[in-house]
UniProtKB/TrEMBL annotation:
Keyword Hydrolase assigned: yes
Protein name, entry field: Sucrose-6-phosphate hydrolase
NCBIfam families associated with the record: scrB_fam (TIGR01322)
InterPro entries tied to this protein: ConA-like_dom_sf, GH32_Enzymes, Glyco_hydro_32, Glyco_hydro_32_C, Glyco_hydro_32_N, Glyco_hydro_beta-prop_sf, Suc6P_hydrolase
Organism (species): Halomonas binhaiensis
Length: 498
């Protein structure tokens, strides 16, 4: 069988089985306005691009079950990043180089107007697991419509003895195409290897452009490197960092370093490594440049190690974050906030105005809502409450998730100790001390994304409520709260089909 028909056959098989799995999907926590597969597992966003007038979002996908397995690239597209259309699965393992998985990667539009998707072809050395290491090579697949891809084979081999070597991210600076790949060096250090090309097909090694400052870090997954303002950002997922305070609490964490870089030179870091998001579920972020110049990011919400509640019986697992726009503040900290288009999902807005919440008082904001947004502004100078507490997804069984500004910790926390379903634990973003607290909270059926002070920090986690109505309550604790404004929006579905 030739390469093309093997790919077609694998895609057909995947589509059919995924269709059967779709019939078993349970929607109690299935996202209304976040990207997820129709059924089955997803992880990293891949190949983010704007092509043929549509935003293209691919993602790591196992269409056969709600567990991670041989990776495919799933696909959705959108004209406006508000309403999404499901597209056929784009890539499946079908050649020797990607025998055990079409791993993560990125896509760019070439000078010939075609979409060039670069991904890691993955093989287990022993054919079944990582015990004897991986064989990972960077591969190219080309498409003329973003839907059907032709595999063009391996473009970067890398040294044969590397344990990890994956997740190519491509961009163009001047006339040159650049590719970074995450690597585990022979000394077991996490590095980014930089390659250059003039035609997207022939690649030459340029240099090791970045080495993780933390000696415990042995691999950098899903690297990204892009200009923002007059600086360069390196975004990566360090493997091996030790937990410390509120940092590196997840089994998989993502963060960034800001610095200077010029083609042909080294990357000069100007900052330390810093987490980009402080929640339980934020990994493998990838960015792309929108046609209007905005730098837009999607991250993956999921978990490799701790089982996710949807895996047991709901026939799906994993979703992407909402698209977020990035900027740098004057301290060279990366800010991320939902793109402006997200506001178009709003239906049925309720403006509760400004009010004072008395001592130890609760105010029910919503009796029952699955997908909504809270915009809250609090005057902390006139607030004595120890926490500004939002109890979300509160159900009759006593389950809920707490999102709170904690004046004692000086953090915005997300606490799942009362979760009816799924993993517990709390997380917290540092608070910058501003007297005007602004929280923007996006709640979907199974997730919460908190943006603090216009994206200065974010906290992103799964939250799986119990049965029945899901309430949202604002509460004060041993003090009062001066609410300057409180607006609630219900959010509609982002899908043009189910
Ligand atoms: C990160 C990752 C990538 C890899 C992909 C496999 O989440 O492990 O490094 O390419 O997932 O699904």
């Amino acid at each position: 069988m030739n390469v093309k028909s093997q790919q077609t056959e694998q895609l057909e098989r995947a589509k059919e089985t995924n269709g059967v799995l779709r019939q078993k999907r349970v929607d109690r926590w299935y996202p209304l306005y976040h990207i997820a597969a129709p059924a089955g597992w997803i992880n990293d966003p891949n190949g983010l691009s704007f092509y043929r007038g549509r935003y293209q979002v691919y993602f790591q996908h196992h269409p056969y079950s709600a567990q991670w397995g041989p990776m495919h690239w799933g696909h959705v597209s959108s004209e406006d990043m508000v309403t999404w259309r499901r597209e056929p699965i784009a890539l499946a393992p079908s050649v020797e180089a990607d025998r055990d998985g079409v791993f993560s990667g990125s896509a760019v539009v070439g000078d010939d107007g075609k979409l060039y998707a670069f991904y890691t072809g993955h093989r287990w050395r022993n054919g079944v697991n990582e015990d004897e290491g991986n064989l990972q090579v960077q591969c190219l697949a080309v498409s003329e419509d973003g839907i059907v891809f032709e595999k063009r084979g391996v473009v970067v081999e890398g040294p044969a003895d590397l344990l990890h070597f994956r997740d190519p991210k491509i961009w163009r600076t001047g006339d040159t195409w650049w590719m970074i790949v995450g690597a585990c060096s022979l000394e077991n250090r996490g590095e980014l290897w930089l390659y250059r090309s003039s035609n997207l097909t022939d690649w030459a090694f340029d240099r090791v452009v970045f080495r993780a400052p933390d000696p415990d870090v042995y691999m950098l997954e899903c690297p990204d490197m892009f200009p923002l303002g007059n600086k360069w950002v390196i975004l990566y997922c360090p493997m091996g960092s030790k937990k410390e305070g509120f940092q590196a609490r997840n089994s998989h964490n993502a963060g960034y370093v800001v610095g200077d870089w010029k083609p042909g030179g080294d990357f000069q870091p100007l900052t330390d490594y810093r987490p980009l998001d402080w929640g339980h579920q934020f990994y493998a972020p990838q960015t792309f440049e929108a046609p209007d110049g905005r730098r837009i990011l999607f991250g993956w919400m999921g978990s490799f190690e701790i089982p996710v509640a949807t895996q047991a019986a709901d026939a799906w697992c994993g979703q992407l974050t909402v698209p977020r726009e990035l900027s740098l503040d004057e301290k060279l900290q990366l800010q991320n906030r939902p793109i402006a288009e997200i506001e178009r999902l709003r239906v049925n807005t309720q403006d509760l105005g400004s009010f004072e919440l008395g001592l130890n008082e609760d105010r029910v904001l919503l009796e029952d809502a699955e997908a909504y947004e809270i915009e809250l502004e609090v005057d902390l100078e006139r607030t004595t409450s120890e926490r500004v507490s939002l109890t979300l997804g509160a159900t009759a069984d006593g389950g809920s998730t707490l999102v709170a500004y904690d004046d004692l910790m000086h953090r915005v926390v997300l606490d799942r100790r009362a979760a009816t379903h799924g993993d517990r634990g709390h997380r917290g973003a540092p608070y910058d001390g501003s007297k005007r607290l602004r929280l923007r909270i996006l709640v979907d059926r199974g997730s919460i994304e908190v943006f603090v002070n216009d994206g200065a920090e974010s906290v992103t986690s799964f939250a799986f409520p119990g049965e029945g109505p899901r309430a949202a309550v604002l509460g004060s604790e041993s003090g009062t709260i001066a609410v300057k404004s409180l607006v609630l929006h219900h959010l509609r579905s982002a899908w043009s089909d189910s």
